[in-house]
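Exam review. A common question shows you a sequence with its structure tokens and asks you to describe the fold in words. Practice with the pair below. Do the first one on your own.
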Amino acid sequence: MGTVILRMAASGEKPYRVYRGGRTKGKVPLAKHDRESRRAVRSDGGGPGRIVERRRRRRAWLGWTWRRWTLVVILGLVLFFVVWGVAGYLSVSSGVSDANSRLPQNVRPVLTPDKGLLFSSSTTILLLGTDHATGKGSASRSADQHSDSITLLHTDPGRHRLYYVSIPRDLRVNVPGYGYEKINTAMQFGGVKLAVRTVDALVGSGLPINHVVMVDFNQFEKLIDAIGGITVNVPEAIRSNRFDCPYPTAARCQQWDGWRFHKGPTHLSGHEALIFSRIRENQLDPSWTDFDRQHDQQLVEQATLNKLSSPSLFFSLPFEGSSLMKPIATDLSTWKLLQLSWVKFRSGKSIHCRLGGTSEQIGGGDYIIGSSENIRVIDEVLGQSAPQPPPKGQPFAPGCIVG
């Protein structure tokens, strides 16, 4: 008989496993649970313990992972916007160059240079609206170069405010070289240069004019149509007299009641906006004055500026950027117009002011004689005092209204 010697396995040595076919030497196969726990890697970098599910390998599409495709799409969109923006800038720049050439060269020397970028420094822009079109209903006014609309746009980027100062065209002022006349005759006597000098002398050195924009309201019609129309918040219901009758026969025009505009937000085409800005008499309101007409013109101008500075216009700039500047003559460069658009976009409050006085007849003509309250309005525009509305019952009194 043989002797069986019992011997313990050495430390760390795997025991033998006996199979039916005999025994084999090597590592003992572990249970499935133990095998998975040894192969798993903890996400927090620690040792074994908790079983962590192995990440599945994402299937690549055309050899690229989804992360790479996402990066490519983002870079493609950035490149598209850059190229589109450059194309739009070049198109607008071409139109601005033409607008600069339409402004007489003698105007720039009478303008006060800006003190810095429009992003951070205040600037004052004189907006002159002319309506000497030769279209239907205005042939007799083709030689009329009076400024029908005179507005100062003053920016205050530090307070995110825009001030619109309306100057009545019948305001009696000292026109340099011509004596006391209506302020709108300065344009007729000496063009844009004399209009700038006259307004500059009126508002004083505290509000120097840095830039000028002259708008042809007849061409303005095409501009508004090009941007898809504008929305104006009509302050009150309007029914005009029978000017600019849309019908071909005199008999039909005699039966026509006039143009009608309902109170509230109203979408206007180019022609409707032009009619709205020309209304001189409201059959529904006997107290209607020229101030109301100028206020309506301001609403059209502001609605157009809002549309021009809106992001929705970005995608049409490469095609229409040049044509948008056709109704305008200005000294503003493309870079300054972009700055102005940003200031307009950032502004949270608009303040509408007007100069004025009392109505008088002199030599058979109707004039507005300015009052000392106009100085107070200028101080309000400069932020030196709080805006005060015009007194009630005084249709030509100066003042400011917020909003």
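Now try the second one, then compare your answer with the model answer below.
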Amino acid sequence: MRKRGRGQDVCFEDALDKLESIVKELEKGELPLEDALGRFAEGVGLSQICLARLSAAEQAVDKIIREEKGQVNEYPLKIQEDEKC
């Protein structure tokens, strides 16, 4: 179930969509400085939410892999960022 709302209650997909929207808005360069700073701060918060969600997903995948293999060893998932990140 996907949570919606503000702060930590927002789901990954919604946070990412909003972050992409903010980036596009900032790239246009049409916002007054104060508005741009506010949007930037909002974007930083959204990026932290996305990173937390990705970290939780990575831990869940690691646990599933360990359980499937019947092993206690942890196999960290390497997430490589591309130029779009």
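Model answer, second protein: Residues 1-5, 81-85 have pLDDT under 50 and may be disordered. Residues 7-69 form a domain with the Helix Hairpins fold (CATH 1.10.287.1040). Full marks require stating both points clearly.
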